[in-house]
Structures are given as structure tokens and as C-alpha cells.
Amino acid sequence: MHTLPPLRPLPALRRLGFTLVELMITLAVLVVLLAVAVPSMQEFTAHNQLAATKSNFAAAVALARTEAAKRGRMVALQALGSGPTGNEFADGWEIAVDDDGNGAVASAETRVRKNAVTLEKIKLGGAPQVAFRATGALVGTAAQVYTLCRAGGGTRGYTVTVTPSGATDVVAINTCTP
After folding, report:
1. Rounded CA separation 64/131 (Å)
2. Cβ proximity of 105 and 96 under 8 Å
3. Is the pLDDT of residue 21 over 80?
4. Domain ranges across the chain
5. C-alpha to C-alpha distance for 146 and 124, rounded to whole angstroms
6. In the CATH scheme, what is the homologous superfamily, with its name and number, of domain 20-173?
7. What is the pLDDT of residues 81-119, one digit of tens each?
8. Pick from 9, 31, 71, 79: most CB atoms within 10 A?
9. Pairing between β-strand 129-132 and β-strand 144-150 as defined by DSSP bridges
10. 3-state secondary structure the chain
11. What is the CB neighbour count within 10 angstroms for residue 16?
């Protein structure tokens, strides 16, 4: 007669998925990581906006100088509107040509480029106009300094200096007061 082999106990079914405790711990770790990462990302974004504005402004100064030499006339980069002291370029800037040669840029004269941005988070302060002679040299004998800072605070910023020869020098600064 045949005997049946002894019965073995069935293996316990493996649990699939997560327990509620494991899920809660994972979410808690995720919240802590986000709490650390979000402020760093905001600082990173604010600094990149400041750096982009600095680059755009320095490029506009260089373009104004180039246009003056190319056209053989005075060309000015000037603030749009009249921003408050320390933020003269709050409404952006434009590059304009002195078509009639009178030493001033009137509203009817040629506009080369306009950058009508609203600088809400960045302060860009300095003289409301930087003008170049037909030689590419700065109108006037003193260098003009423009300061870019974050409007909401922060110590890091930039200065854009236009020398009497018309050269532009951009320097990062750690004490920012526009």
C-alpha cells in the first residue's frame, strides 16, 4: 500500500506593499528634505535673476557704445520712466541716438533697443543716463557706477562701472546698498 508523504506546512504568504508606519516615515523624511531644499532653491533663483539682469545691462551698455561708434553720433542708454533714487532703472532702459546732434536725446529721436522690464526684485541704481560720443568714449570725464542689488535684501550684488574711455567693468560685491 502506498503511503502519502507527510504534509508540510504551507509557507506564510509574503506581504506586498507598505505598512502605514513605513509610509508615514517616508513622508516625514520627504518633508524634511523639502524644507531644506526649498529655501536654497529660492536663493539660487534670486541670484540667477540678479546675474541675468547684470549681464543684460552690461550688454546694453556695450551696445550703446558700439552704436555710437557705428553711427558717428552720440548714443545714450537711459532709464525708462523715473524710478526712485537707488532704483532709477526700475522700469527698464532704452538705447537712443542723438539724431540732431544737439547733445541730448529727445523723444522723437531714433530708438535702437528698448528693454521695458519691471525690476520688482532687483534694484538697479546709478545715473539715469550713460551717453557715448561718436568715438565710443563716455560723455563726461568721470566714470559712472551702477549698482545691482536684490530688492528684498541680501548682501551679494554687482557693480557695473563705465570708464571715461567707454570700457565696462563688472564686479561682484558682498556689501550691496544701491
Report:
1. 8
2. yes
3. yes
4. 20-173
5. 7
6. minor pseudopilin epsh domain (3.55.40.10)
7. 766 665 677 788 888 888 877 767 777 677 777 777 766
8. 79
9. unpaired
10. CCCCCCCCCCCCCCCCCCCHHHHHHHHHHHHHHHHHHHHHHHHHHHHHHHHHHHHHHHHHHHHHHHHHHHHCCCEEEEECCCCCCCCCCCCCEEEEECCCCCCCCCCCCCEEEEECCCCCCEEEECCCEEEECCCCCECCCCCEEEEEEECCCCCCEEEEEECCCCCEEEEEECCCCC
11. 5
* Single-letter code of the amino acid located at 169: D
Three cell numbers, residue 55: 549681464
Joined together, the cell numbers standing for residue 65 give 557704445
Q: Mind listing the pLDDT tens digit for each residue in 40-65?
A: 777 788 888 888 888 999 999 999 99
pTM for this one? 0.74
